[in-house]
Write a structure and sequence with these properties.
Length: 48
């Protein structure tokens, strides 16, 4: 998580009772381990 950024969390009801430390730890872990999507070179716009 980065300073100056806002995050919206959509979660199940049981998350409402989770501690802030546990919630942020889980979010950081999931954000860091998500696959990075890259577009193929042919789909990128090019300036002419």
């Amino acid at each position: 998580m980065q300073p100056g950024h806002d995050y919206v969390v959509v979660a199940r009801r049981d998350v409402l009772t989770a501690s802030f430390e546990k919630l942020t730890g889980e979010l950081v872990s999931r954000i860091e381990t998500r696959p990075k999507h890259r577009r193929p070179e042919t789909d990128r716009s090019r300036k002419v």
